[in-house]
Amino acid sequence: KNRSVSNLRAAVICVLGHVDTGKTKILDKLRRTSVQAGEAGGITQQIGATNVPIENIKEQTKIVRGISQTEFRIPGLLIIDTPGHASFSNLRSRGSSLCDMAILVVDIMHGLEEQTIESLNLLKAKKTPFVVALNKIDRLYDWSTMSRKDVRDIISSQGPNTQNEFQTRTKQVILQFAEQGMNAALFYENPDPKTYVSLVPTSAITGEGMGNLLALLVTNCQSMLAKRLMFSEELQATVLEVKAITGLGTTIDCILVNGRLREGDTVVMATSDGGSIVTQIRSLLMPQPMKELRVKNDYIEHKEVVAAQGVKIAAKDLEKVIAGLNILVARSPDEVEICKEEVVKDLARELGRIKLQDRGVLVQASTLGSLEALLEFLKDSKIPYSSVKIGPVVKRDVMKASSMLERENQYGTILAFDVKVERDAQELADQLGVKIFQADIIYHLFDQFTAHREQLK
Ligand code: GTP
Ligand code: NA
Ligand code: MG
């Protein structure tokens, strides 16, 4: 009921692309933030979310030629940032399956790279429409910066050598898309937006093309996705991350794609022990508009949140909730049992996909996404794993690792990715000779483990 084109929700936009093409920087430029500078190693390792209200988009698209004819009908964009590093393919997959439309970021100096192609294939498989941000144009030879203008005018005002380089590199990228079986064209030369993907030249550092990128997203969403964006009351919400916040206890960050959540709602979610929790929403917190949900902010409390939004939920007993799975709301007491069964089945399906070896290291991570990312990396590095867990390292985990120690020394090891190690667990490990490696960057874990293995040889 009530679904209509006059009641659209915010479009969920996922930013995808190869590592270091500038995905987070593009969002920083748009938000006037500096999230990228605060990331460990400048590498994105989690999915993020930012609410961009339509007022901000109107402001930032003022410089776009012809925009005055556009009627803005969506209430804004919810932009999801994803990691570009090879090992996070599951987060890219999750982000791209959540979204209505995507921005595929390509570094104009590098063209299509490995994870660009991987992302492209995800988008093709899900038939998700997307635009390409042809980023880092400020790195073209002798580029002169003039950000508060339509990018078409900026390009035509560059010197002849700069324009030449721009044309050559753009043609190269178009050719690379053709090799992937896709038509692509600069957005202002696009002969048919239904069959050609549009390239928008951008610089996340100097700001050129950012307004054009936003304008194209909004107009494409409105013309191609109006039906899909009609607000629906049927709840669709996914847990992105489980996080302890000083003063709030354990909270969850989630993406509400459809429906609404209210303070006091009874929510049901899967937990890392294979069961589920039923709890009441104590508060619904949203970052200020234009702030990143994954960064600690001053949150605003809401009685009700209507899709599409990125929202933080505070409630009791969230410690064991698993990121990456759906949140269900039980509207009546009879629904509680049904919801519990459903979330447990969801989790079993996800973990059931993981193949374990008889001999191998123990792996623990903070979320389903980061666990999958680490496993992907271990698989590529030919490091076998015999057990996986989501959550902190406790004594029981060390006991389990020590039994592996008897079978093969090097595998008496716990790789703890972005999780705590309880003090008594560490003490027990020291006693038993179990190695625990702890890091918040995947390679660091890998480096520590390979150094350890070398030492044993
Ligand atoms: P991952 O999240 O790790 O995949 O990387 P990312 O795609 O989010 O890239 P990020 O925003 O971390 O930027 C990578 C590097 O490129 C940083 O050093 C940025 O400052 C730089 N960079 C990003 N965009 C631009 C741009 O438009 N021009 C220039 N010159 N540098 C840029
Ligand atoms: Na980066
Ligand atoms: Mg990033």
Question: What would the keywords be for this entry?
Answer:
single chain, seven-stranded mixed sheet, seven-stranded antiparallel sheet, globular, binds guanosine-5'-triphosphate, binds sodium ion, binds magnesium ion
Description:
- α3 packs parallel to α4, α3 packs across α9 and α10 packs parallel to α11.
- β4, α4 and β5 form a beta-alpha-beta unit.
- The strands form 4 sheets. The protein has a 7-stranded mixed beta sheet with strand order 2-3-1-4-5-7-6, sandwiched between helices. Strands 8, 9, 11, 12, 13, 15 and 16 form a 7-stranded antiparallel beta sheet that branches. A 4-stranded parallel beta sheet has the order 18-17-19-20, with helices on both faces.
- The protein has 12 helices and 20 strands.
- The chain is an alpha/beta fold.
- The mean pLDDT is 93.
- Bound molecules: guanosine-5'-triphosphate, sodium ion and magnesium ion.
- Guanosine-5'-triphosphate (GTP) binds next to α1.
- Magnesium ion binds next to α1.
| Rounded mean pLDDT score | 93
Report the structural category. alpha/beta
Q: What low-confidence regions span 5 or more consecutive residues with pLDDT below 50?
A: none
Described by strand count, sense and barrel closure, the largest sheet is: 7 strands, mixed
What is the spatial order of strands in the main beta sheet?
2-3-1-4-5-7-6
Give a list of the ligands.
guanosine-5'-triphosphate, sodium ion, magnesium ion
Q: What is the overall number of helices?
A: 12
Beta-strand percentage range: 25-35%
Proportion of helical residues = 25-40%
**What is the count of β-strands?**
20
Rg of Cα set: 23 Å
Question: Which term fits the overall shape?
Answer: globular
Distance between the termini: 67 Å
Domain Tr-type G: 8-225
Family: Belongs to the TRAFAC class translation factor GTPase superfamily. Classic translation factor GTPase family. IF-2 subfamily.
Subcellular location: Cytoplasm
Protein name: Eukaryotic translation initiation factor 5B
